[in-house]
Design goal:
By secondary structure, the protein is α+β, with helices and mostly antiparallel strands. 23% of the residues lie in helices and 26% in strands. It has a ten-stranded mixed β-sheet with strand order 7-6-5-4-8-1-9-11-2-12, sandwiched between helices.
Length: 599
């Protein structure tokens, strides 16, 4: 690692005095030696990939040589637990705290946002002098200061939503600006991670790569699909009659692409001679998004049973961690922040108590075990708890996970004391963390002083009247069926900095429906504009689908239309979008409002 620019400058200032120069150069050398020993960090998180989607875990349907090699090169955690769904796991990784503590209770419509008084792992590493970046799916808030750039990441390229409707060159967010992606997202995000690593190869970096697959829609480049399309599946789901084999083939093709791109990252670290002193972490955000091979565990994505929350965790650091070690102690996503901070010997930038423990002593071989503990899993009011020996599920059934890892026999009657104790602990945990969780009074911020742009997507709005979403899942949806002057869309907002804002509406409208008068109001302030330019792009995305999509919206190339400039005072208000005149069948289809503060 090269010393910082300021340290170099300081060393050069004293070359005129022999004694001072010698003394100061010695201090510089000592400082640089400390910096040189500090490892870089690369964290790879995949989306909806189950524990069983790796050949290292016994899946014989395909091979994942690069991820397997990563696992064998360091420590593999055999009982590592995340959350049943995406955004809660990401919040726990970012904060080292259970997701309800950070206000995360949903995967869309604002419930995925991480409370602003939480401090993230990126803020800790940035404060310690690391260059920080995230490339991929964020899913913990869009509007600044929920945006990744406000949560410790110097660089962000990706999307903030829970899923995207098209994985080939879609619209993305680059540090708050709308841009167009370049090719298949897994490869595109890996390219950007590699470029960032190359840029800061001589300095310390913390790179977070939350890849968006194999989350649906099931899209993957042709070569990967061709290799899996007709593959006979030898490793099957626990409940074989529930498995959709084409969906499984598509998921595994997507994981194969992930594996190749993990290999690209590892080769780049080797090429730059950084691999020895770079910690590489690999894990998944929940159980598999379909019934497929998962080691005979009960449950899948959305479940608080073992199969819904068990994830691989591989931690590799050739210079500091023994290779091919397997740790049997239970641990979770809440442990990653304290562990990585401990391994890198940096302070944690929060005064809030962590739920996670540092696994550094066991990773480094300084300890053979960690203290006895509980790992709680929660989603949608359902709570289960895992000990080293037992799991109490959300229905109060007790399972001996040592002799019955598939959760097939309820042994609550055989262990009444254990059952009673774990029931009490679940009740205590729930009473502490869950009351009021869904009573979300947080508005969507507009106009943060440090960020010039604010996006308000349809995902975060509420439709009224006949207005409908383009798909059941809000994440990448747009508003359609806007047919009546009684229809409206609303967003609770807070203007953080008063001033003038230029507003654009990203829309689609065929020529025969032109002429609608659009009215945007925020409190007593209003803008009005007529839809006068036709823009009628086709719905896209399913041409890339390998199996039919179920809940993910198709996408369109929406066009920005200037609504005008509005003067906004600071404070909370309701933003309403409606039409005062609709001469055609509909006013327009609406994807996004964009606010830009102007002088």
């Amino acid at each position: 690692m090269k010393p910082s620019t300021s340290l170099n400058a300081g060393c050069q200032l004293l070359t005129g005095g022999q004694w001072l120069a010698t003394t100061f150069l010695l201090l510089c050398s000592m400082a640089n030696a400390v910096a040189d020993t500090r490892p870089n960090v690369v964290v790879i998180l995949t989306d909806d990939q189950g524990w069983g989607d790796l050949s290292i875990h016994g899946n014989t349907n395909f091979t994942t040589p690069n991820i397997d090699a990563l696992g064998r090169s360091g420590t593999r955690f055999d009982r590592f637990f995340v959350c049943p769904v995406c955004s809660p796991t990401r919040a726990e990784f970012l904060t080292g705290r259970y997701h309800p503590r950070g206000g995360v209770y949903d995967t869309s419509k604002g419930g995925e946002r991480l409370d602003l008084d939480e401090r993230t792992i990126a803020q800790s590493f940035k404060a310690a002098g690391y260059h920080t970046a995230a490339f991929g799916k964020w899913h913990n808030g869009m509007q600044y200061p929920y945006h990744p750039n406000a949560r410790g990441f110097d660089e962000f390229y990706g999307y903030c939503s829970g899923h995207w409707g098209d994985y080939f060159s879609p619209p993305l967010d680059h540090n708050g600006q709308l841009v167009t992606g370049n090719g298949y997202l897994v490869e595109d995000f890996t390219n950007h991670a590699i470029q960032f690593i190359e840029q800061y190869a001589q300095e310390n970096f913390f790179v977070y790569v939350p890849l968006p697959t194999p989350h649906a829609p099931m899209q993957v480049p042709d070569a990967y699909w061709s290799a899996m399309e007709n593959r006979t599946l030898s490793s099957k789901a626990r409940d074989e009659d529930l498995e959709d084999e084409d969906f499984t083939r598509a998921a595994l093709a997507m994981v194969k692409c992930i594996d190749d791109n993990v290999g690209r990252l590892m080769r780049k670290l080797e090429e730059l001679q950084l691999r020895e002193n770079t910690i590489v972490v690999f894990f998944c955000d929940n159980g598999p998004n379909s019934f497929r091979y998962n080691g005979d565990m009960k449950g899948r994505k959305g479940s608080t049973d073992e199969g819904g929350v068990r994830s691989p965790l591989f931690v590799s650091w050739p210079q500091g961690i023994q290779s091919n070690r397997v740790v049997a102690q239970i641990c979770g996503a809440i442990d990653l922040l304290p562990t990585l901070a401990d391994l890198c010997k940096i302070p944690i930038a929060t005064e809030k108590p962590l739920d996670g423990l540092s696994l550094a002593p066991i990773v480094s071989g300084q300890a053979s075990s960690i203290p006895d503990r509980r790992i709680f899993s929660h989603w949608n009011g359902k709570v289960s708890v895992r000990t080293q020996h037992f799991r109490l599920d959300h229905q109060g059934h007790l399972f001996d996970m040592v002799i019955d890892p598939g959760q097939k026999k309820n042994v609550a009657g055989e262990h009444p004391d254990v059952t009673k104790q774990l029931h009490a602990e679940v009740e205590q945990w729930s009473n502490e963390l869950l009351p009021g969780l869904r009573d979300d009074q947080r508005p969507f911020p507009i106009g943060h002083p440090d960020f010039n742009l604010t996006q308000l997507p349809a995902r975060d709005g509420t439709p009224h009247g006949q207005v409908a979403r383009s798909a059941k899942a809000p994440n990448c949806s747009y508003f359609t069926n806007w047919t009546s002057t009684d229809d409206r869309m609303t967003w609770p907002v807070e203007i953080l900095k008063p001033g003038r804002y230029a507003v654009e509406m990203y829309y689609a409208c065929p020529e025969e429906d032109l002429g609608a008068e659009i009215l945007l109001s925020i409190g007593d302030n209003r803008l009005s504009q007529v839809v006068s330019v036709a823009h009628n792009p086709p719905a896209l995305g399913n041409e890339h689908d390998r199996v039919p999509r179920h809940t993910e919206s198709l996408v369109k190339d929406f066009k920005p239309m200037a609504l005008g400039t509005i003067e906004l005072p600071s404070g909370k208000a309701e933003l309403t979008l409606r039409a005062t005149k609709i001469p055609g069948k509909q006013a327009a289809e609406m994807r996004l409002l964009m606010f830009r503060r102007v002088p």
